[in-house]
Fold this sequence. Notes:
alpha/beta; 3 domains
Amino acid sequence: MKTVSDSFRRAGVQKLCAALLTVITLASLAHAQTSFTSGQKAKVRGTIMSRKGDLVKVQDTKTGTSAIVKITDDTKILRNKSKVLFRRHQDMDVTAMVPGLTITAEGVGNSSNQLEASRITFSPDEFAIQVAQQQQIDANNRATANAQSTANQGVNAAGAAQSSADQAQTTANQAGSMAQAAGTVGVMNAMAVQMVNKRVSDLDDYRTVAEAAIFYPNGQSTLDDAAKADLDKLAALALSTDGYMIEIAGYASRTGTKAANQQLSEDRAAAAANYLRNHGNIPMRRIVAPAGYGATHPGAENTDPQGRELNRRVDVKLLVNKGLNGAL
């Protein structure tokens, strides 16, 4: 005789098989890559999956396949009008090409079957929405794991376990909605990249080759001679590194207001980026979203002058994609 417990197990197996089939289908699409005919005009819209120097891998929003977009000196990168103040330093739109951003690229195919972009547009609002959606996904995944744990513990009392799972799923949905709302409000109230607070160097696909810490006097964003020397060394190493990218994160001590610290950290990051561009011969397209993080991520305690001095800094990292020798 079939029991409630048997039915519960079969239902779980069916759901697992369906989930595996979905994963396999998505994986096959992700491995499929669009090939662009040399000399022919083309257009692609998708979300940036990864970057390797001037090459950007995007996942097509319609087909799910991937495409390689090449950024050159002639590529115009423009933001659409939006409600999100994506970055106060508006001359740095080219640096916004970070994983997670949805872009529309237009251009012609090259001899490597890539889309050599003449124009790329993006909307910070869409990025803000994607951040909120990802927060919802993360919340749902955590709640689903809790629901599965509850179901496993209640296998001898399937009815009770199912009830617990339903309650957990309800909690998951509520948590997801709260995460989405909180994420949207949070991102819309400040610059999207800073609110995400997820730097490219935190991603598993990238390796830090070298880094430099640049320090500033209190309330200032001007580079001194020591800072310039450190940036010169990093720029020279970058130019000899294949497929490099540079990430810049600015910080401030907790002296002053939150708004002032945010602005100061952004100005410090911009100062380092502009120096690398103007004196280190680093193309701005190779610098990834130079961002200010205010007084977050302190490197030392803010309770004494020495600690505050260490927190008035910019972290500059030279990055390469771990898949540099393989497929992007």
